[in-house]
Amino acid sequence: MDQVLSSFLSQYGFAGIDGCDHSGMSPLMRAALLGKDDVIDVLLAAGCDVAWRNADGNNALWLACVGGNLPTVHKLVAAGAPLDNMNVTGATVLMYAASAGKHDVLETLLELGADPHLTNVDGANAGSMAATRQCLWLLRHTVT
Questions:
Q1: Are residues 53 and 14 part of one domain?
Q2: Number of folded domains in the chain?
Q3: How confident is the model at residue 1 (pLDDT cuts 50, 70, 90)?
């Protein structure tokens, strides 16, 4: 096993690349949150599941967006991470980025093809969740 990966797995208490921690977070999810692209490269090369979801229904792409790691976002989408994955409340990463006011993440997700018209379980879409003017401006074509 690659030394970088071995060290990362040991540091965060993972038994292997397909395991998860007590919160249901996979090694890929943890690496995405931390922006550890060197670890992500090794995990992807080893064939880890890019669609793995935790108990909330969130995947590694969600955690990359939480961390604001744009290179990681690009890398995960290129590797096949579901861009419009909906968690247990029907929220997508685009909805998260809009509601958190992360306009740089929002813009990146739109450029990558995220669907701004999807709605969560409450019928809200990313445009109706926009927390800042910048986010609202980016989603202006979706707001009625």
A1: yes
A2: 2
A3: low
Residue 39 token pair: 């670890």
DSSP for 13-82 reads T-SSTT---TTS--HHHHHHHHT-HHHHHHHHHTT--TT---TTS--HHHHHHHHT-HHHHHHHHHTT--
CB 63 within 8 A of CB 32: yes
- Among 82, 99, 128, where does a domain finish? 82
Quick check: 109 and 65 in contact, CB under 8 A? yes
Is 0.85 topped by the overall pTM?
yes
Residue tagged 């590694």 (tokens) = 60
- Is 131 strand, coil or helix? coil
| pLDDT tens readout for residues 51-89 | 999 989 999 999 999 999 999 999 999 999 999 999 999
Distance CA 51, CA 62 (A): 11
- Expressed as residue numbers, the domain containing 18 is 1-82
**Amino acid letter, residue 47:** G
What 12-18 contacts at long range (C-beta under 8 Å, 24+ apart), as own/partner pairs, is 17/43, 17/46, 17/48, 18/48, 18/49
Backbone angles phi, psi at 125, to 5 degrees: -110, 180
